[in-house]
Amino acid sequence: MTTKIEELKYVKNIMREIATYVLKTSEIVSEEQIKRALELLVNAYRNNKTVLVMGAGRSGLVGRAFGMRLMHLGFRTYVLGDTIVPPIRKEDLVIAISGSGRTKLIITAAEAAKSVGAKILAITSFPDSPLALLSDVVVIIPGRTKISAEEDYFARQILGIHEPLAPLGTLFEDTTMIFLDSLIVELMSILGVSEKDMSNRHANIEL
Amino acid sequence: MTTKIEELKYVKNIMREIATYVLKTSEIVSEEQIKRALELLVNAYRNNKTVLVMGAGRSGLVGRAFGMRLMHLGFRTYVLGDTIVPPIRKEDLVIAISGSGRTKLIITAAEAAKSVGAKILAITSFPDSPLALLSDVVVIIPGRTKISAEEDYFARQILGIHEPLAPLGTLFEDTTMIFLDSLIVELMSILGVSEKDMSNRHANIEL
Amino acid sequence: MTTKIEELKYVKNIMREIATYVLKTSEIVSEEQIKRALELLVNAYRNNKTVLVMGAGRSGLVGRAFGMRLMHLGFRTYVLGDTIVPPIRKEDLVIAISGSGRTKLIITAAEAAKSVGAKILAITSFPDSPLALLSDVVVIIPGRTKISAEEDYFARQILGIHEPLAPLGTLFEDTTMIFLDSLIVELMSILGVSEKDMSNRHANIEL
Amino acid sequence: MTTKIEELKYVKNIMREIATYVLKTSEIVSEEQIKRALELLVNAYRNNKTVLVMGAGRSGLVGRAFGMRLMHLGFRTYVLGDTIVPPIRKEDLVIAISGSGRTKLIITAAEAAKSVGAKILAITSFPDSPLALLSDVVVIIPGRTKISAEEDYFARQILGIHEPLAPLGTLFEDTTMIFLDSLIVELMSILGVSEKDMSNRHANIEL
What we know:
Rossmann fold, homotetramer, alpha/beta, 52% helix
């Protein structure tokens, strides 16, 4: 059986939808929260503390992509789920990513980190979630439910359909990916790390 | 030692830079290439073929995020690097993601897939790269070097700095993430899969 | 600085120690427990249920090695920590490996599986551990503490040292690896799967 | 459908078969090869070089289990396939595990490591394999084919069956796991690392 695709209905619209969402988020994300997040990161770097990044599912993959860049910057960084993860100690930094702030394994892991005196930085859509409440610093990245009215408008008016478009956590995940990549540039500047330095720390054998 | 961050220089600008890059890409990505990519995917789905997604480093993480969504759509999908990966057979689909199109382990793996008669879909910035040349269908997602003039302009004029901004493969990776998430919505429509169907196929125990 | 190694003190002795430990365990592991474990596995296979294998650290790696073989046998199997993990439903089988039976993330995950009606098979050293108590079937594989007297004797008399030899969970992990590989052969016989069938289901592109 | 298991035919026999195979291997593995392998490891440790462990499939899992223990000993160690892998440099150590010595992705990766001047330690059954030939030091761990006559004898005479018992690479993988765990004890002695030191370096948050 062979299918022919005659016409694209969504691809380019959704690319625009997600990019527009990121633009909106860049306007509303809290500068104060970002500064506090950067302070945790810079202090971990300068005091040579371990930074452990974690998240479940696609949020975990976004966290891993951030962890790689932290390594390129010279951080002593690890990601939950890798084989090689050292113990977390007092004053180490744990970065937990969860749109809902309610992912059980992440909360269990964050509580374990907190119990040994690590700092917790949460990236979540919900300031009142269990994850946010146990964290030292929270950066709120909106998920779909947070701007549902506008989105529904977008969906109904522009594309003529009633279902929300980017499914499930997509908007949170993609926006968080780009937000964290933007933090990396700020950290390059603060820590005086050039792109060439990062390239030199890039894996030369990897999958 | 404690550092205070007084002022953000880049975070919001870089979020805008990346989002703007995605918007530009949505205009220039080839509809014809996208249609051919969708045909490979839809045929794999309808003929119950295995889809193996692969990439190295951050491109691999973007591929894994896409693989998860393919699973939510009901594809028989796997990602290279997972413990559980079945053999690839004739007419299965391998999706290889590499900005440069030159990543050795990915080319080795794609050649192995080709030798058993699998179809190869490449996502890369370079149509003349070894990966593109061995693939059945190629979707070109531009990387930084492809629009360097504009970007340099952007960097110099708007932000007043000389270094390129989003480092290394960031623009390719983030744009590919959003492009692939947009393909998912097109596939939802073509295959008649609702968000609720996807939610029902979402892992309930995961890290 | 270059170091020369003049003499081996432990390698061959420890290989013998671990192998001897496996031999002892083959005598004392409960046939009744093994039969009940096999029943859970065979029923999952015959009813096409998902089998999710999980463990933390080295126990998780042993579980992954078992998961691969289950896939070769034709099971619908996944391992926690892989990118691709489907939802767990009523009557699916979760295999949890933990020497202590107290690993927090594993207990959290096992409880989540139990709450949706999955069957839980635990491989642990401790029949009274939280993991064992919440499981449907438990196979006890002894860990070091369980036969410490003999081991201490072995260490003191044969090798002339006072510390236990194979460190931490090594004896549990290696014995469990071999025990699970032995279950695979029993399953080959019960399910009528030949080595050639398994070879045909072996990944041809993998890392 | 419910299956009852009335009788175990293989489990305990196979446990004994594998343990006996490990015992035999402990007699025939080359002391000279082990000493040279230990020298590479000890020099990496004392000169603070990166040790990258790699293997495909179940050999890769055995490698990861070894990598974890190297971390517990205080090595600067990583495993191929983890998210966090630093670049490999001149004089770093790559440990490649492949029963056949012919696994394509592993040879590609080992060649890449060699090209930057890293040392390669191979664990394989075949001294003439491509992997062995490009390595600085090789430890031969026999796989099934190497002692097939004896094994066939064992299978036929003792257990009354004609098929080889532990399927595919099982004997190589399990024996290598135990061999590498035995190397760990030798390294504890050489480097003066106690079990308590190792326990202090054990992950306290892990999956």
